[in-house]
Amino acid sequence: MTLETPYVSRYERRVKLAQDAVQSRTELDDKAAFDLAVHLVHVLDTTPEKPR
Questions:
Q1: DSSP letter assigned to residue 49
Q2: How many angstroms separate the CA atoms of 20 and 22, rounded?
Q3: Rounded to whole angstroms, how far apart are CA atoms 22 and 32?
Q4: pLDDT for 2-34, tens place per residue?
């Protein structure tokens, strides 16, 4: 018996982590928290290292 684990990319894990953080501090629903998490991850990915 082999159990297959679905592949979850690093990006998807980062978005889920951000979504969980947003939802733990706000009353946003899943869709709104996901949209905000995607935006947050994008901003973090595109911000140059120096300002971080």
A1: T
A2: 5
A3: 10
A4: 889 999 999 999 999 999 999 999 999 999 999
Q: How far apart are CA 52 and CA 50, in angstroms?
A: 5
d(CA 38, CA 20) in angstroms, rounded, equals: 12
Position 52 scores a pLDDT of 62
Task: Tell me how crowded residue 49 is: count the other CB atoms within 10 A of its CB.
Answer: 5
Q: What is the CA radius of gyration of the chain?
A: 14
Distances (CA, A) of 2 to 5, 20: 10, 30
Residues in the chain: 52
**pTM exceeds cut of 0.70:** yes
Q: What is the four-CA torsion angle of 14, 20, 37, 49, rounded to 10 degrees?
A: -50
